[in-house]
User: Fold these one by one.
Assistant:
Number 1:
Amino acid sequence: MKFSRDELIKVVSTQMPDKRWQHTQGVMETAVKLAEQYGADPVKADLAAILHDVAKYWPIETLRTIISDNQLSDDLLSYNKQLWHAEVGAFVASHEYGIDDLEILDAIRYHTAGRIGMTLLDKVVCLADYIEPGRDFPGVNNIRELANHSLEGGLVAGLDSTISLLVSRRQIIYPLTVLARNDLIKQMEANS
Ligand SMILES: Nc1ncnc2c1ncn2[C@@H]1O[C@H](COP(=O)(O)OP(=O)(O)O)[C@@H](O)[C@H]1O
């Protein structure tokens, strides 16, 4: 079944604490602005942002079951659980909320890890997740500043901050994020 935007907002907002819904609203606002600035579709950016964290607070065993029962990218299951909600979010958007636009589904799926060959919409949603107004972590203002001038530059700085954090905690890095970062740097070099 297809949901209206208002219906989506209602069903998604009830699946997370207020604070996370506020974050989602910040991502909606920022993703639309970035889409307008960098030539992505603002309507798709808004929908992907509404849904990006829909599964963030689902029980971890539910996420694991959905990923393994539906043959979603199950290499994810041997990496950080924090990555799982993005894959499940795309699945739920498609199977429960009738989103059939692959660009929107991919932007949800890759909003945390990134991927090689990120689309404009992937980049917008992933960067918006780093810099929405409610975010407050060391270096966020630098990422915001870079994002004013370059979508890829802002995103590389965002991914670098995640990679640095993981390195500093000696945590295992899901390699797709490193590949995404390298690919964005290549794109920037090719365009300079
Ligand atoms: N490549 C990766 N490998 C392992 N963990 C990762 C990777 N990328 C992101 N993460 C984890 O996911 C977290 C960010 O997930 P995100 O959905 O943006 O959550 P939040 O919105 O709560 O910051 C990071 O802080 C890190 O712990």
Number 2:
Amino acid sequence: MTPPTALTIAGSDSGGGAGIQADLRTFFAHGVHGLVALTAVTVQNSLGVQGFTEIPADVVTAQIKAVASDMGVNAAKTGMLATAEIIRAVAKTLDEVEVGSLVVDPVAASMTGHALLREDALEAIRTELFPRATLITPNLDEVRLLTGISVVDAASQRSAAEALLEFGSRWVLVKGGHLVGTPECVDLLTDGREYRELSGPRYETENTHGGGDTMASAITSSLAKGASIPDAVAAGKKFIERCVAEGYSLGAGVGPVSPFWVLDR
Ligand SMILES: Nc1ncnc2c1ncn2[C@@H]1O[C@H](COP(=O)(O)OP(=O)(O)O)[C@@H](O)[C@H]1O
Ligand SMILES: Cc1ncc(COP(=O)(O)O)c(N)n1
């Protein structure tokens, strides 16, 4: 039987833990056929990002059009988009092709603190992509860059979600993984009417590289299979929790989250 398809528009991580590599292994773990529009090639390992080269914007759009016109895209997600030019080209292309739901993970930097976006590009994500998104999935650092709000508790997490909704996405998921010192990791999902707190245990681990990509692509996988946003996000939270719990050391720095547990199911 032909599986559902999901498209990732994102960068490559040579270390294999984040970016399109995380997306493809997550799509596979969900029984979804992964399609790729590569935006950048990063030189990266467990210690950080040593550099990146972006793919020409017309090549990014050609990849999206090639797969959308021939294979069909049930759901799509964006990760590292590198430049404002690529963001504008992706936004325009997404108006011209059918991609089902769109999850925008506004990746700005690696967890090791290295920029994955050129400086003027965050504004382009906010103005060009958010209004086209079904769901956006910022972490707390991205929330601060996008809204100026520092999330320190449930009340500021809610204010930040409301400020983000103003940029025009249908739903916002404010991920709480970076709110350290709390026994639980609480992510807040809202469309401005419904508010859902998704809460789970915080695991003691260093190995969380690729966590954001894995969660966004798990959500995208469920959307590709026809789930609603609340159901897809709830399933994504369960999936990432287990991947964080089973994250492994690889290299001298930060290891990746692991989707390998699905092989034992
Ligand atoms: N130590 C942890 N234990 C359990 N879940 C975690 C942990 N760190 C992050 N998560 C969860 O993983 C997902 C991604 O987390 P977050 O760290 O907030 O974003 P990002 O990976 O984009 O920086 C969220 O659902 C978050 O709650
Ligand atoms: C190509 C690429 N895309 C995304 C991330 C973010 O992942 P993380 O926050 O885990 O470093 C990354 N490091 N590299």
